[in-house]
Amino acid sequence: MQLTVLGSGTAVPHPKRASSAYWLQTSEAAVLLDFSVFALGRIMTKGFEWANMDAIWISHFHLDHIGGLPAFLFGSRHAEEMKGRKKPLRIFGGTGLKALLKGYSGLNNYKLLDQPFPLEIIEVEPLERFEIAPGIEAVALKTPHTEESLAIHLRDRDGSTLVYTSDTGFTETLAAFARRVDLLVIEASFPHKNPTENHLELAEAMYVIRKAEPTLAVLTHLYPYWDDIDFVREVAKFSPMAEVVEALDGLKLVVPPKAKTEK
Questions:
Q1: Pairing mode of beta strands 183-187, 161-164
Q2: How do residues 48-67 score in pLDDT, each as one tens digit?
Q3: H runs (alpha helix) in the chain
Q4: Residue 6 is part of a domain; what is its CATH number?
Q5: Which domain holds residue 102?
Q6: Residue 138: closest CA among 177, 101, 166
Q7: DSSP class of residue 201?
């Protein structure tokens, strides 16, 4: 598997960080993890085959994670690249996803769900295994962020594993969920002095990482508070048991890690 960070930031506008989106590529499939308003532009800039992606994962319904999806569905109805598509596009998320997209579809008679290709919207139950795309087994975990928010554990056919927490408050269950995965993509919204229980600060993220013992951990969903922080020095204070890197837009990560990450 290879994961490309398309957006490492938050809803707060930032000159270097777009809001959440990650392109996951395997030998058999392509999956988009979250779909911010910047995602499609970043996908096309990178030259990824957007019209051929197999699945979209929506972790929760905050606009910095789903805002680009309605626009994509509006455009895909008219895109030449989609007219010859035969395989289904599957959109996965928590309870309420169908109603939300149906509501968008009804606005101005957009008909977002009437696509020139098969479109499947699948609401996932926590801890029930499912195939998110060919060769990729998945299971979701309820997280303390919103009513529908979910983390996801992915296992490729070759045995490589990845957990994407998306936005979450602190829970020790995350450590068990991500136990010894190859790659843990975990939010660390604030370097310190967390103003909310619905996000993680660095100390909380590092606690999960130390308990989970992944091969590689990536801290993401970084608010501008991080701009003046020495990332390496701050992380080193916690003596992590794994390699921990900063998510940057454009960062490419091989799963399982075989070499240093590259930008």
A1: parallel
A2: 999 999 999 999 999 999 99
A3: 39-46, 63-66, 68-76, 80-83, 97-106, 173-177, 202-212, 231-236
A4: 3.60.15.10
A5: 2-254
A6: 177
A7: B
